[in-house]
Design a protein that fits this description.
The structure is a homotetramer of 186-residue chains.
Chain A (H helix, E strand, L loop, with lengths): L3 E5 L6 H14 L3 E7 L9 E3 L5 E3 L1 E3 L5 H4 L6 E6 L7 H14 L3 E5 L10 H9 L2 E4 L2 E2 L5 E2 L1 E5 L5 E2 L12 E5 L1 H6 L1
Parallel strand pairs in A: 1-7, 1-8, 2-5, 2-6, 6-7
Antiparallel strand pairs in A: 3-4, 9-10, 11-12, 11-13
Helix pairs in contact in A: 3-4
Chain lengths: 186, 186, 186, 186
């Protein structure tokens, strides 16, 4: 029985590396996979999944208008679907993916952030956490040495920003992953 | 470093049994714990946590007006707080509990459902999934033999009900835990 | 695809409670299970699995001469086999169980200790850790408040014993679960 | 409280990739790590950890004569020790590493195979499974599409070899990761 998998982490845990490793494992064994990433995340150019270790691979892009049901035809020989930056999925898309997993017995693995810089969950991440049959956390490291589970936003001067738009890709702002103790005490 | 723990499951997995076992383990070792359950859930009487295996234990009750910060005084010798039926916590209460874990280095373990009979997540469960440092699933079994991760509601005649109020405790309606494949195909 | 499951823990984590809960979950759903415990462990009488929470249930007994292949007939309607005190299985029996899981598509769940009071693994536990497709730890609590993963033996005067026979059931000796830091520092 | 971590997998799961990602995460945060790999594994040259994704990094080598207690001086500013090909550690070395974790509050992460091509556990892996406070599995994929947990050895003609020396690095023999069902049925 196929599962909807969700691998969540704070920033800089190695989510994309793990996605690329899983894709490699399937492909090496002769299995077919499809990779998606969010159109909004164009840090490396549109349609590229890249790891801080230096590995990159092309991917299809999705945005809130994407209908996965149309893209993932029934009866294909697809072994697995891998989705990066899955926090940008809409709740409706997550429901659609969950249905596709079980209707077509097709494993789908989503990788993404849990919550934004204010500790507020992304709507897509919430729905993934509510429906996935397999949830696991990738560990990143806080500056204090503990496991980080959250992130904070810094402005140009390195001062923490406590409110603002959830999404701010490619701005001059910076993010840093932190453990909850540092999130509350700094 | 203390953690916010969330043990989620569909109905009839044994959540209350595990809560009572953890409470027993702490108490047996001379450690002090406090147990809470939702006031709204009065199936066994108000303020009782009970397991289908036949074990019961008294607990304090909480509702949406409960301020845990007042109940859990700083500097007490408390080793752990255990909360049953945690799907009824408000998102604000979950944030408060998360802060208390890290401000007071106090482990808090919450046990509850993930989603309602329509597959919609409870607001409290969503916030727990977004903030907990340790998330794990307790396994219940679908009638088909697979792991159940969801529940459906049945009416008096055993016919599946697909819409209605999320909470309906002690009514004549009945619930049954199912795997996602059965959730979508029945 | 069925799995060999191994739930290990130090003493007093609640292994038997969890086994009895899983058995209850299957039975309640109309699924058939068989329970085994080690003949050598007669603390509650032969053939009884008991939880510190006060729940007990009869079980079949096994010893090193048991051939599970003969007991678990092909083609039965068995949904799951549950084995308590699995540290007393021989490596050969563990291999046999692993084969039966995959030959008959029959889930088998083993519950037991990992290592003895000297930190030396039980032969059966080692083989379970080497072959099980699903391994998880049940948490017990050290007197210091941390998770316990090991155990120590005490003599009649409460003094730690550092060598001796691995198995000593029902003697006047006592065991206590500890975390590794306490194991090495006391 | 630091832990001994063990990440096990069958071949071709991505163990070295994950090790290199963890090392990167620590180093990027300004934390100091030391990397070790087995001297016997010279597929990429001695003292190199390499991932099938194309990432490599130099590492110190260990063999059965290595005394980690001497190498890992007390009071250093080391944040983590990472050991690849950990199935080649001796049981005594694993005990030493476990002691060092708790004596010096130093996290040590070991990555390695669980069992050899006959399904027999490596002595070092067994001891890691018996002592590690944190055990997790990295998933590789069997040719049949299921999770692989074991490996088989093939000869020059691609015929399965069922007995022989456990270790045979760099020979003309080949290995392939398989699930248990394929291990028993082929």
């Amino acid at each position: 029985m196929a599962k909807l998998h969700y691998r969540y982490a704070s920033m800089n845990a190695g989510k994309s590396t793990q996605l690329l490793q899983v894709a490699y494992n399937y492909t090496e064994g002769g299995h077919k996979v499809r990779l998606f990433t969010a159109k909004i995340d164009d840090r490396l150019g549109t349609g590229v999944i890249g790891s801080r270790l230096g590995v990159t691979r092309e991917a299809e892009v999705y945005d809130e208008s994407t209908v996965f049901d149309k893209l993932l035809k029934r009866g294909s020989d697809l072994a697995c679907v891998l989705i990066d930056e899955a926090q940008f999925l809409t709740p409706t898309q997550v429901h659609e993916l969950h249905f596709l997993v079980h209707d077509r017995n097709l494993p789908i693995m989503c990788f993404g952030l849990r919550s934004d810089f204010m500790g507020i969950p992304f709507p897509g991440s919430m729905r993934l956490l509510s429906l996935a049959e397999d949830i696991s956390e990738l560990k990143a490291i806080c500056a204090c040495g503990h496991k980080s589970t959250m992130q904070i936003r810094l402005d140009d001067d390195g001062v923490r920003v406590r409110s603002g738009d959830t999404v701010l890709i490619g701005g001059n702002n910076r993010y840093r992953q932190v453990c909850a103790a540092c999130f509350y005490s700094t």
